[in-house]
Design a protein that fits this description.
With about 140 residues, this protein is α+β, with helices and mostly antiparallel strands. Helices cover about 15% and strands about 35% of the residues. It has three helices and four strands; from the N terminus they run H-H-H-E-E-E-E. Strand 1 and strand 2 form a beta hairpin.
Length: about 140
């Protein structure tokens, strides 16, 4: 009888160089994020894994849509964090600028956003964001 081989740990889609279980996995399962950046990374991972409940659960009630209308033909390929302002363990507000790379119908593109996060009742939540126009975006390889 052959021994059962364990599959290698899956890398986290957010690009942290940690495993999914050690990074965004617990947040997707309901654990609170300790920083605004950690929440941002988990929301990107939720998009990659199509875990849309996490997106709604971590969206501030004042700006949360009643439902998500996400394109089904996007394949998220990489997350680059450009800047993080505040949003630490003891903070109440945070800003994370990121570029999320994706492919749609075989064409590479990016979403460049500066997202705002707030801590509400001890939980980091996505509030809103400003999308940068394509002219401001660099497609770094």
């Amino acid at each position: 009888m052959k021994p059962i081989s364990k599959q290698p740990p899956r890398p986290c889609p957010c690009g942290s160089k940690r495993t999914l279980q050690a990074c965004c996995g617990p947040l997707l399962a309901g654990s609170p994020a300790t920083t605004a950046e950690a929440l941002m990374r988990s929301r990107y991972t939720a998009n990659v894994l199509k875990h849309h409940e996490h997106l709604l659960r971590t969206w501030h009630p004042s700006t949360r849509p009643t439902e998500l209308d996400l394109p089904g033909n996007l394949r998220w390929t990489r997350l680059d964090i450009r800047a993080v302002h505040a949003g630490g363990n003891a903070g109440h507000n945070g800003i994370v600028e990121f570029i999320a790379h994706f492919r749609e119908l075989g064409r590479a593109d990016v979403l460049h956003e500066t997202s705002r996060f707030v801590r509400d009742n001890g939980l980091w939540l996505y509030l809103d964001g400003d999308i940068h126009p394509p002219a401001d975006t660099t497609l770094a390889k």
